[in-house]
Each structure stands twice: as C-alpha cells, then as structure tokens.
Amino acid sequence: MKTKLQRGFTLIELMIVIAIIGILGAVAVPAYQDYIENANMSKIAHHFAEGARFAENEMRKIQADAAVGRIANLAEADGSGDYTQAGLVSLLNAEGGAAPGGGPAYVEGAGSTATGAIGITVTGTFAGGDWSATFERPAIYGFAQADTKDANWTDI
After folding, report:
1. What angle do CA 131, 94, 62 make, to 5 degrees?
2. What is the rounded end-to-end Cα distance, in angstroms, of the chain?
3. Mean per-residue pLDDT of the chain
4. Cβ atoms 116, 140 nearer than 8 A
5. Cys-Cys link to 111, which of 40, 96, 115, 136 (CB 3.0-4.6 A)?
6. SS3 letters across the chain
7. How wide is the angle at C-alpha 11 spanned by C-alphas 9 and 15, nearest 5°?
8. What pLDDT was estimated at residue 1?
9. Is the Cβ–Cβ distance between 143 and 137 less than 8 Å?
C-alpha cells in the first residue's frame, strides 16, 4: 500500500501562522507609531533651533558687512527684502526641509498645529536698531505647549 505525500498546509497550521502574525502586528504597530511621533518631534525641534540660529548668523553677517564697508549702511540691508517676514520665511524654506505634516517647514505668523511648521514673525528694522525675529514652535505631537525663540538685533 502506497502512502500519499501531504502537500500544502492544514487549516490548523494556517490559523497558527495568522495568529502569530496578528500578535507581532499588535506589538509592532504601537512601537512604529511612537517611532514616527519621535521622528516628527525631532524634525520640528531641529527646524525650531535652526531658524533662530540662521537669523542670528544673518545678523552677524550684516554687522560684519557693515563693519568692512560691503554695505553702505543698515538701511541697505533692510532694503534687500531678505529680512522682512516673507523674505526670512523664503530664505529658510530655500534651505530645504518640510514640515512633518507636509508643506513648508516655516510659515509667516503663528506656527501650524496642522502641519508642524515653525511660525516666524519679524518686526522692526536694522536701521532702526530694533529688528527682531520670533520663531514659534507649535504645540503638536509630544510638545504639550507652544514655545518661542527670539533673535534680536540688540542681542548680537
């Protein structure tokens, strides 16, 4: 009498494999969601710090240019348009990067709780000695509340 070789899986074996996949998925999905949230928080924190650092470096560059005569006066820096609210947002977004929720990393005015974009508000002028840029990190993901950083001409 010949015995037939078994081919394929039995229903029990298939159910066991599906149960194991379900258990692994139940553990992996929350860990992956935490990973994504931490990555997005890290991205926002980087944009927040980088924006203020960029503005401070630009102010130092303007001071150096004025000191060595590359610009005639501070009104010339004001006239470039680069250091208005829209100009600064444009300069920072040109550096690359995007908000975690999509769209630009920096926006004019308040930070975006929808996308995680950093908000920028510019006041004053260099010639007036009161130029200031305020960067706002929105309360999103694990950040319980919004935070601000200022880059002031008088502090440089």
Report:
1. 35
2. 95
3. 90
4. yes
5. 136
6. CCCCCCCCCCHHHHHHHHHHHHHHHHHHHHHHHHHHHHHHHHHHHHHHHHHHHHHHHHHHHHHHHHHHCCCCCHHHHHHCCCCCHHHHHHHHHHCCCECCCCCECEEECCCCCCCCCEEEEEECCCCCCCCEEEEEECCCCCCCCCEEEEEEHHHC
7. 105
8. 63
9. yes
Is the pLDDT at 97 greater than 90, yes or no? Answer: no
1 Cα distance to chain centroid: 73
- Is the entire prediction scored with pTM above 0.70? yes
Residues in the chain: 156
